[in-house]
Structure formats: structure tokens, C-alpha cells
Amino acid sequence: MKKVLLPLALLLVAVLAFAACTRDNDAPAVGGQQEPTVETPAAEAPAAEAPVADISGLRIALVAHSPESILDDGSFNAGAWQGILQFAREHGLSTTRGQNIEFFQPGTATDEARIDLVENVVQNFGADVIVLPGFHFVASSYEMQRLFPDVKFVLLDASPAGDIASNLVAIHYAEHESGFLAGYAIVMDGFRNLGFMGGAAVPAVVRFGHGFLQGAEHAANSLGLGAGDVTVRYYYIGGFAPDPGVTTQAGSWYATGTEVIFAAAGGAGFSVITAADAADAYVIGVDVDQAGDGDVVITSAVKGLATSVSDMLNDFVNGTWRGGRALMFDATVNGIGLPMESSRFRSFTQAQYDAIFGQLAGGAINVNNSLDMNDILANISLVTVEQ
Q1: pLDDT digits (tens, 9 = 90+) for 20-29
Q2: CB 114 within 8 A of CB 138
């Protein structure tokens, strides 16, 4: 599949003004942002291209946003990689890195480094499809889709800062719904002293946290609890890499009464798990089922990373590529949820989960997806939130 590359000397278009809120220098501040126009993935686009006749030489790359964004993060990158592996196995492709599939990291956490890396991936690895996981690609993906028009891009958790070109599909997830389910289940299971540690205040993480608060409030109301009976310590770490400082902070929370922490923090979640293990306490995992990372993981707020990535790759080879569109994976298409089969709840049951999930999917419960904490707190009366 021959690539036609536009010169990298093409000037980058000025896009969004970002406020630094992680160790990266381009993560956006939240509050008052416009949500992209998205559609559920149920409606297939008519075939616009011929199916790929021979996929034996297909090259698929997963590109990280920074040097600290590791493949085996037990979370977001790992989920996307599982989708690539699933597709490769289904089509008889090699799952050995460097052959049909590979993972790449930029040297620095900048848009320029990400674009330079993608140029290298296209020219030297020969990538046909590149998966871009995370909100940090908002600006650079807008340029990539134009600089490399013969490459297909799957952008996860975001839309480009501008229009979506026909060679890119933007995937969104209803993190607020997944977080809601986690908050609801954990309070229904009897926990009252909760914590939320987000990697950084980027939209996906914020929605997880805001949904978590709403789920805890809904459960408290369902159980007839009084104001203040449930407490949530709420904090953004400032990064997504494992860090001894995170272990220390999580340990201090556990030592002073926190029973379970929802760690929506990528690789930093491992640091929370370490603290929970030492304190004989619990963690709620994120993005993928993290039950295998330790007995202290009571459940995980998951989103359909593997399924959505595999689906988009199948679209490409089948000639049904849904480029130029933003797709939302939510409860209506089983795009989010809790992995009940591996959860370690003490009393929360499958029947209870099915009931609350059905209300979400059927529209009986609408979770506020606002990025503004004040909007969320306006409807929180039973849960005490400590920021």
C-alpha cells in the first residue's frame, strides 16, 4: 500500500490554546468545552472502498502520546493494544511486534514530536493504520490526517481540533456512564469512605470522576442514606506514570479511613494498587478489566477499547471505513460497563447490575457529562466531596 506523503514543511495550523495540567505541556484545562457531534456506531456507513484483497502485509501501529505512556499500562494503551491483537489473531496476522503490528513512543511529549514520530512510522514501518490513544492527540491528529492522506487513523477519546478528514475516525466513550456504574455499585456494596484519583484533569478522566460522584449519589438516595453518610476524597495526580509519591498519597488516604479508591490514572493506577495491597484496602480499576493486577481490585470501570479498535480495523479491510465521523460507544451499544464476572463485590449482585445498566441503556437514567464540577455538585446533596 504505497504512501503519498505531503511535505512536513507544511505549516502547522494554530488550533486550541491548552492549559498545562499534567506533566505534558499540552493537556487542556476543562470546564465549558464544547462536546463533539457524535453518533452511536450502530449505523454502518455504506461501503465506500473496495475490501483489502491481501492483508498479509498489513501494518498497524499504536502510537503513544509521550515517553511515559507505556504499552503495558494495564489501562488505556493496553486496551487499545488488545483490540489490535484481537484483529491480528482473527485474520491470521503475526502478533509478534515489528511484523504486522508495533507500538511506538515519541521522544518528548509535544505535538511536533508526535507528528515526527508518525512520519517515521509511515516511512520506516510502513503503517497502513495508526491508532492514536488519548486526548493529547487533539491538535496533532488534525495535522496527521492531512500530512499522511493514504494512512488511516483511529483516534481514541477525542476528535481532531477542526474537521475530521475522510481518513480518520474519532472514537468516543461514555466514561461518565462507566464511572456512574462504579460509584453506584461500590456504595450499594456497602462502602462509604471513597476516593477518586485521576491522572490529570483531561476530559475522559474528568467524566470518569464526575460520573463516579453521581453514581454514589444515586446509590445513597436509593438506600435512603443521610447527607454526609458517603464521603469522596477527590484529587488529580498530575500525571499517568507509576510514581512512589502516588503510592504514598494513596497510602495516607487508606490510613485515614478511605476504603476504596477509583484510580482513573493509567499506569499511575499501579501505584494505587501497591498502596491498597499494603493497607488491605481496595481499588477500582479503569478502562480495562484490571482484576488480574491484584486481589485488591474490586471492579473496573471499563470502556470498549479493544472492541472499538478491532471494529475500526475490520471496517478498513472490509471496505466499510467510517472515516470523517465521530462515534460514541455508550451503554446503548454496550460500549461501557463493569466486568461483573471478575468483580469482587461483597454483596452487589448481577441482578442489581443488570437493573441499573438497563436504566442507563434505556434512558431512564441520564448521567450529566459536564466537565464543570460546579454543574455536578449542584445535584449532589447526600455525598460529601472533599477536594
Answers
A1: 233 333 433 3
A2: no
